[in-house]
Specification:
This protein is mainly alpha-helical. Helix content is 71%, strand content 5%.
């Protein structure tokens, strides 16, 4: 069956999942971050009885509600895609992968759905204590939901707690707690949730600075900034710790991903960490003899220390992993990629022999085939690999995405420190330049999270489940046109949805609002921020397409730049918004790239936030 699958089907299936997953991840981290912020603010209301904190909490709750609703809807799309586009995957590991997803739905989602109703509609109907508990339990439900989703994802990175059943050709769970408490899952959970907290803090500070920029609701803005900056600094510092843990876990369980992230082809002891570097674009394969870098600055022995907690630790490179022969921690010699492929083919052949012997009633032959299968099952997925170069992830994509994430993480720590210094030692309300920096930092929070997921998922390639099932063997056998059709249907729905939420005008706001409605010149300001957001998000998504469809990086940058100016232009001429979206959609169709379309929902959402912050005085307290 694998030989008969069109490679373009694999590309389109991956592209569709990447698009919907990246769109989904716009909403999830902000939900996690705002849940804590609004919980802190309502706690202050409960402790002090000050109505100011109640109104402040209610303001951020509205934005939480928007994210929660859209996050649920986009998450459902992903779950359906497992059955429609990835049916082989669902069959092969559904007994394991489905368990945490089921628990997430039964426990976490119902918990969220119950208490979010009390949180939004229970003001004045339940006691202050019960309402406060409902707010925190809503956030806790969202966090528990993230736990089970990340347990499932971590299992794909490091499969444990299961056995392969040759009678059903399925992997079956034998140790639930090994799956649920895997070190990879635990670390991934904390790092991911902390990244959501950082984004939530950045968002609170940025939107509050919008108020200061417009000289409105000063007390509300400064109070929100204090909470957001303190919360963000703590989360950012903790994410450094969990990020170090993630690097260690990757080194232990996914050495090829670590090698790709570092552009490391020749490993060894005392390996340095590349702080800054430029990869050689002419480097195509691991054994072509070309230097992988045009320029690099290394921190001596740091990679060995981070990967093995020992400056003399051995870290294998891409070439070492492909060729094998180096000593593993258990004293054995690492197999070469060619040897693993042969053992994978042996496992596949043994499975076929076992099933044939079982069907014929030859129990002795079935037993022999079963033993051969068990000896080689750890390499089962390698049997589908045709060329050892397929085992190497996209090195430039992982290398640069990782450094974008790390550099932005360092910037966020500095950002929160500076904000706290100015708010306590200076008059932040008068520093317009700082307000702009805070606003423009919002899209950077999103791009850091997206870059992290690019490393997590693209660094795992070519595996859907490491060593067990390659991506090309995980997909459903569909017509390519079917996947293409649903791909563009999703894009069209996102365009329509965002159009309904973003094509509002100042005239749409009630005339009796106590704060002045912004002028057209004012609405151009948040759209400029939205345009910056679009540029960075489109670049992230377009890079995925560049990998799948071999689009040049020049095209990626051109599309991103075009999206930026299109959104900026639309902000000055609201009536032109629909036309710009129409032409962007047409261009995307002919280029077979989703990047311009993906700009639309992001733009509408962020612009709506900014307009809401500038216009709606019904929720934030006026001062």
């Amino acid at each position: 069956m694998i030989e008969s699958i069109d490679t373009s089907l694999i590309d389109w299936s991956r592209a569709q999942f990447a698009m919907t997953a990246m769109y989904h991840w716009i909403f999830v981290p902000l939900t996690l971050g705002l849940a804590v912020v609004m919980g802190i603010m309502e706690t202050l209301y409960y402790k002090t009885g000050n109505e100011f904190w109640k109104k402040t909490a209610q303001f951020w709750m509205k934005l939480f509600g928007i994210n929660f609703a859209i996050g649920v809807a986009t998450g459902l799309i992903l779950e359906f895609e497992f059955g429609t586009n990835w049916s082989n995957y669902s069959w092969f590991v559904g007994d394991i992968f489905g368990a945490p997803l089921a628990i997430e739905g039964i426990l976490a989602f119902f918990m969220e759905a119950t208490f979010i109703a009390v949180m939004f509609f229970g003001w004045g109907k339940v006691s202050k204590r019960f309402h406060l508990a409902s707010t925190w339990l809503t956030g806790l439900g969202a966090t528990i939901s993230a736990w089970w989703i990340l347990v499932a994802n971590a299992w794909m990175q490091h499969p444990v707690g299961m056995e392969f059943n040759p009678d059903t050709v399925r992997n079956e769970m034998v140790d639930f707690w090994a799956v649920a408490t895997s070190p990879v899952a635990v670390n991934k959970f904390f790092h991911t949730v902390l990244s959501g907290w950082v984004l939530g803090a950045i968002f609170v500070v940025g939107i509050s600075c919008w108020y200061l920029l417009k000289k409105r609701n000063r007390e509300f803005a400064l109070a929100s900034i204090k909470i957001g900056a303190i919360f963000g600094l703590v989360a950012s510092l903790l994410s450094v710790w969990t990020g170090d843990g993630s690097g260690y876990q990757i080194a232990q369980t996914q050495p090829m991903k670590l090698a790709a992230v570092e552009g490391l082809y020749e490993g060894g002891t005392n390996v340095g960490l590349v702080g800054i570097g430029v990869l050689n674009p002419e480097k195509k394969t691991y054994n072509d003899g070309k230097d992988p870098f045009l320029f690099r600055f290394e921190i001596p022995s740091m990679l060995s220390f981070l990967a093995e907690r020992n400056v003399d630790g051995y870290v294998p490179g891409i070439t070492n992993i492909i060729e094998g022969g180096y000593q593993l921690k258990d004293g054995s010699k690492a197999l070469s990629a060619a040897e693993k492929i042969e053992r994978g083919k042996t496992a596949i052949g043994a499975l076929a022999a076992y099933r044939a012997a079982k069907s014929a009633g030859h129990e002795e032959d079935a037993k022999i085939a079963y033993n051969v299968l068990q000896e080689n099952i750890p390499y089962f997925g390698y049997g589908y690999i045709k060329d050892v170069n397929q085992l190497v992830p996209n090195v430039p994509l992982n290398f640069y995405a990782f450094r974008i994430m790390v550099i932005l993480g360092g910037y966020f720590i500095l950002f929160f420190i500076v904000v706290l210094f100015f708010i306590y030692k200076k008059d932040l309300s008068k520093m317009r330049w700082m307000h702009w920096i805070a606003l423009l930092t919002i899209p950077l929070g999103y791009i850091a999270g997206q870059a992290g997921w690019v490393v997590a998922e693209c660094g795992r390639q070519p595996w859907a489940i490491r060593d067990m099932l390659p991506t090309m063997a995980a997909i459903s056998k569909l017509d390519v046109s079917s996947v293409q059709t649903t791909f563009f249907i999703f894009l069209l729905l996102l365009v329509i949805f965002s159009s309904l939420t973003s094509m509002d005008t100042p005239a749409a706001y009630p005339a009796a609002m106590p704060i002045a409605v912004p002028t057209p010149g004012e609405t151009a300001v948040p759209a400029a921020v939205a345009a910056a957001f679009v540029a960075v998000f489109v670049t992230t998504l377009a890079v995925v397409f560049a990998v799948s469809f071999a689009v040049s990086l020049a095209t990626v940058l051109a599309v991103s730049l075009a999206a930026f100016f299109a959104v900026l232009f639309a902000s000055f001429f609201p009536a032109s918004t629909f036309l710009i979206r129409f032409f962007a959609s047409a261009a995307a169709f002919f280029l077979k790239s989703a990047a311009p379309l993906e700009a639309v929902p992001v733009t509408g959402r962020l612009a709506s936030y900014a307009r809401y912050a500038a216009c709606d005085a019904s929720c934030p307290p006026s001062t």
